[in-house]
Amino acid sequence: MPELPEAEVVARQIRARLVGARLTGSWFGRPDIVREGYRDRNWYAGSVLRAVERFGKSVVLRLEHQEEIRYIVAELGMTGLLLFPAAQTRFPQHVHVRLTFTGGAESELRYWNPRRFGRISLFDQSGLERYLTRRFGCDPLTVTSEKFLTIIKERSGRLKALMMHQQAIAGIGNIYANEILFRARLHPDVRASRLPVAKVEELFRITREVLLEAISCGGSSVRDFFAPDGSEGRFKGRHLVYGKEGLPCPNGCGRVIRRLQSERSSFICPACQARTPRRQRTSSPAPKNNSDLERSLATA
Ligand SMILES: [Zn+2]
Known about the structure:
The protein is of the alpha+beta class. It has helices spanning about 5-20, 85-90, 125-135, 145-155, 160-165, 175-185, 195-215, 280, 290-300; strands at about 20-30, 35, 50-55, 60-65, 70-75, 80-85, 95-100, 110, 120-125, 260, 265-270. Bound molecules: zinc ion.
């Protein structure tokens, strides 16, 4: 947390309010939170914010100054937020970076993070490209279904770990992996490469649906996520399994949601997300009643 939908909501708000604005000043309060791929911090003063993009869970500000381009990359980590001033009054401490702007709908953008996971990085073009290549695999919202199929079928690892592996599929963390796998009726530990093609295609469709629906809801405010304007994400109200341990399965199968203690906690319905789908467990369906049983014994 935050994951792809939250980072996308952050990028969209900053884009709408600050693209075209001029950066008049910057303040970096904590040296250990800033990674300087590009060392001249003074370059940024006077530059114009030309674009705001999202890669995985990172938000990338593209700044232009006298036809040169530099970047500021914000990793939100576990608890990081990018906030406009009005929203930040709720979080008086732990502001580590302030970027001041003129000519936009906001006067400042602040990087808030009470924990040290998450960074602000400064990059030139080649530094950004190296960073993106090293950190991020395909984006689930722009990758083709063919490429997604290749990624899943080429890996022998467990499906949920693969879905959360940033260098394979960028942006999905524990919350959305749980929600996607429940909707796709897949067990987290199923081997990725063993999934039938049709099932991978369904997984691809559901992955996109869940992420796009979450973005349209402003993300999920689990623990401390807020958009730059201070608004909360409403997708938490649509979670079907994440944090729902002990509650009835939303599919109405009669079982309750269980929490598996793997490396990251998984929330599953043991019936709807059986590790081996029932029809594959035996070559023929189990006898339903005595007459079926008699018939199957008679033909054996
Ligand atoms: Zn169920």
